[in-house]
Amino acid sequence: MLKTIAALLLLVLSLGLSGCASGVSGLKSYVDTTDGYEFLYPNGWLPVKVSDGPDVVFHDMIERSENVSVVISDVPDGKSLADLGTPGEVGYQLQKNAIAPTNSP
Q: Going by C-beta distance under 8 Å and a sequence separation of 6 or more, which residues neighbour residue 75?
């Protein structure tokens, strides 16, 4: 009797936890094995073919101004990735210097 209850409990837990481990809904995965990066992008976004510049670009098929792109740049001579800062610091500088503020032309 105790073994039956334990087996039933284990079955219920495994089914419950497998539902929690499912992938992120509403997102698709993009993997670039050549350059060694991957990211998730929203369902309904389309790849854009570019000949020069970004490595990859995706945009929303309804709101075309919403997009994501990956630009790969070399680290300047005499510098290392650590010299550029932590990922948070680099993201902050990018936001400050390269990303347009909300409602900008």
A: 81, 84
